Amino acid sequence: MENTLKENKMGTWHIPKLLYSISLPIIISMIVQAMYNVVDSVYVAQYDNIAGTGALTLAFPIQNLMIAVAVGLAVGMNALLSRSLGEKNFEKANKVAGQGFFLTFCGYLLFLIIGLFLVKPFVSTQAEAGTTLYDYSVDYLSIVCIGSLGVFVQVVTERLLQATGKSFYSMLTQLSGAIVNIVLDPILIFGWLGLPEMGVAGAAYATVIGQWVAAIIGIVLNLCINKELKLQVKNFIPELKLVKEILIIGIPSVLMQAIGSVMTFCMNKILIGFSTEALNVFGLYFKLQSFVFMPIFGLNNGMVPIVAYNYGAKRKDRVIATIRLAAFTAIGYMLLGFLIFQIFPTVLLGFFNASESMLAIGKVALRTISICFVFAGFSVIASATCQALGKSIYSLIISLGRQLVVLIPSAFLLSLLGNVNLIWWAFPIAEVLSLLLCVYFLIRVLKKTFSGE
């Protein structure tokens, strides 16, 4: 009966109702996720506006890489799991879920090693040892890496809930972690309620504790609510064939997001050559743009299991309808984000106690970079469609071309002109290339997928 209900929802519900009912809880949770990322920066900026904000910016490439590995592996698991459910292969679906947990623990071991041994060498490439910026960065990054098992487990349990259409419970998982983080941030940073003042390290501890709370709740919900799947220890033992299938889909997603870490690292190196204020503006932009992109990623996460399920069920009409609706929704929302960044840049930067010099740089940066929002909505959905239909390599090519082949070289060449305001134009330039590639690959994938080639 439960499997029949699952099919009725993913395979027969009206597409707008299905897409929005699955996506809305994810979007809400991602907006809260974006909010607590911003709250981190707001409180840290109050504690130390220059070195504190700079530390979070320098730590961002590794944190982004951590999320890339966690989400990328979960994307591979989610797509294969949804496809298995669409094919009514429930035994394989259970095995895929177990393999997802196995790969999650492997991902955590990588960042445990980074946290224990590689943080100082990484930070020293961007900040001079012995400075406040260096010390803050090392403290923050060491804590979030060593304690990162929470975020890995949180992500995989959320994706299991999403794959079976239980996005509301996935939202509860993420909301719980975000709320804990938001509450703990000022308490640990400033030493409220009789606790010692921890400063930037307090923000890191608040983040890790929130992730662990979300992970525990995610496990409990999957065991108690997610009856379509059975989490069994025997399925955690690695099976080479399934691991390979997950990685074929997941590794391009990991690499695609990891490219973002390389991009931010290179941009940090370029901008810090101008000033710490320019570096901090770039970091604050990434915090603010998450409010624009996170809802689109939520829509994206709601779309992927629907597309994968109906692809497995050989329902081309539902696949195309889902992609079309997701694309139009994403474009409309991104246009709204573009208008907000164009009209209210001073208000947005004011949340972070920005100095006059940061405002001068930041207003130009936000207005220039946000031009790419006009194109990015479609690109995100097109890239996700390629992943859902098993062509993740195309998404990787798009991301590689946008961020490394065009954006970084453009930013470097523009920096040689000596005007930091020109560097921001690298983002719209790169986004135009991304749009062209997305249109080409989406058409190619849809033709090949449904023509029997």
Could you walk me through the main structural features you see in this protein, from its secondary elements to its overall organization?
With 453 residues, the protein is mainly α. It has one domain. 84% of the residues lie in helices and 0% in strands. The chain contains 17 helices and no strands. Helix 7 runs antiparallel to helix 8. The radius of gyration is 21 Å and the shape is globular. The two termini are 36 Å apart.
List the helices and strands and how they pair.
Elements: H1 2-12, H2 15-47, H3 51-86, H4 90-124, H5 132-146, H6 149-163, H7 167-190, H8 200-224, H9 240-272, H10 276-312, H11 316-343, H12 345-350, H13 356-369, H14 373-388, H15 392-415, H16 420-423, H17 426-451
Helix pairs in contact: 2-7, 2-10, 3-4, 3-5, 3-6, 3-9, 3-10, 4-5, 4-6, 5-8, 6-7, 6-8, 7-8, 9-10, 9-15, 10-11, 10-13, 10-14, 11-14, 14-15, 14-17, 15-17
Overall number of strands? 0
Low-confidence stretches: 1-6
Global outline: globular
Give the helices and strands as they follow along the chain. HHHHHHHHHHHHHHHHH
Helical content (DSSP H or I, runs of 4+): over 70%
State the domain count.
1
Rg value = 21 Å
Q: How much strand?
A: under 5%
Mean pLDDT across residues: 87
Q: What kind of sheet is the major sheet?
A: none
Distance between the termini: 36 Å
